[in-house]
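To whoever is covering the structure queue this week,

Two jobs came back overnight. Logging them here so there's a record in the thread.

Job A:
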Amino acid sequence: MTPADLELRYYAVLGLVSEASRMALGYFNRSDSLGITMKGAQDWLTVADGAVEDFLRQRLAVLFPTDAIIGEEGGGQASDAVWIIDPIDGTANFARGDRNWCISIGFLRNGVPQIGVIAAPALEEVYAARRGQGATMNGQPIRVSGASDINRASVELGWSTRVPAASYLAVIERGYKAGAAMKRSGSGALGICHVAIGRSEAYAELHINAWDVAAGLVIASEAGAAVSDFFAGDGIATGNPVLCCTPALRGDLEAMTGISCRPRGD
């Protein structure tokens, strides 16, 4: 795959996410259209999740028929060129009228994230990056905060029912003891973007799925973040822990979360 092939995919997905954002906002602004159901405890599903994923799958299949596609709702199998989609990340927020949700589209080549585009339509924000080309929000370059004092750090910790509550609470306790402010906003993809733009110093989760991070990790890394090797092993199919942070706090955050993190650019 040539640099031109990757560039074509990057600009194509920017156009697709714009269309998908209009579709998702149409549902978001009409609460009676959401058709809310539950897949499990605090695992929300709306009609919009399926509609947005179907739209993206159909368009990507036409534009890039040899690429594989994995989506949160429709599944799929990895290949050496694969799109990974979360049609609505932060569905609980979406279903309740909270604007903190997004559409996340990542592209991996030979298991390495190459393209990430995350749109938060209700916030009028679009984050985008290509490997080696930097990261932007609404077209403007972004960077991590660069903070080096854990006592001034804001750390977001995602929660998953796949991890014992005691493990999650232990990380929170260690964070507070270290002097960090701990928070949770309900969208892992946006949480990673907030590290990339410097609104927080770290995002961590003890287990998360590939569709929640495939796009965000490219964006954060290109913005200067240190990120964990999420796609090691079978991460693309079964998930892994994730840590994304401003580099100067890497040691503190590894100790806090128990998750190893690579230096920026590795």
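Job B:
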Amino acid sequence: MNEQKTPPVADPGLEEHEHRFTDVDEAAADRAYRQIVGMLAAVPVLVLAFLFVYFGVPKDAELVLFGANFQMQTTLLGLTGGLATLLIGVAAIAWARSLMSDEEIVGDRHGAPSPPEARERVLADLETGIEASGIRRRKLLGTGMAGALGLIAVPAIVTLADLGPWPTPDLRAETLEKTIWAEGIRLVNDVNYLPLKASELLVGQLVNAVPANLEELHGAEHQSAKAKAAIIIVRMDPNSIKIPDSRKDWQVDGILCYSKICTHVGCPISLWEQQTHHLLCPCHQSTFDLGNSGVVVFGPAARSLPQLPITTDAEGYLVARSDFTVPVGPSYFERDSSKDYKEGDR
């Protein structure tokens, strides 16, 4: 015979229900109702204030509080947007704690499959929950909450504009796909900005260089320009390298110039293997053959290293013939890759 086991803890049953203040005092319930609606009504006002600050307050305006300087726009955006979000949360909690049904319910356990009568009971319970929420009697609660939740998304959508302008082809051509290289710009050492004379470079040598006009820029503009215009210059025996017909005038007696930025994820490259003419990226080991127009010979990079056309000026110093003919750095979906050099191109 199976012996019936006694539960280790006695069933305490359903405790006696304690009524809330708003359950027994209709005036208190009405006050809570007005407070909740007031909080939800403040959300549209705060959203409008957020939009006014975003579009109307200059980004460089400062706000002095307690002797400290703050950026006025970001401070006010945080206050208005944060307070609007906080009011929605407080209103939802107050609604649940003060006006929604506070009745305790005991639910018996049952098997996993739900019989039809159970589904009907769930729908009935859902109807009971809707009735208990007070939405039908106090309709402004549901309307206010729905409106507040809808409007609070507006600040988030508006601030998406700070991600930057839409990358149209014209905009990319003037920004992302353009560097400060131009015809006649001298190639200078990236440490002391001294110009580089072709006759002074040795076979096998690699030099990290930048455009001479980079020295005229300062701050963020300087760093942004350098990130795209940084180059490496290598000199190789002309008899040991492949130079396609379309690039015969891009080099000077075996001196070639390439972007220093890897075409995989944009790491700076300068690991030079003199014997193989290979340039290795230290981040993910993409390897480019500088003796063959910078084609990829190993690693995850998907396109050749961009080459800068160069020549010499009247004094024998290396100068650029033009800007890069293809965008430097990592690839991206919108760019045209038809001009990238590929093995076998003439």
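Note for Job B: The radius of gyration is 35 Å.

Please reply-all if you pick these up so we don't duplicate work.
Q.
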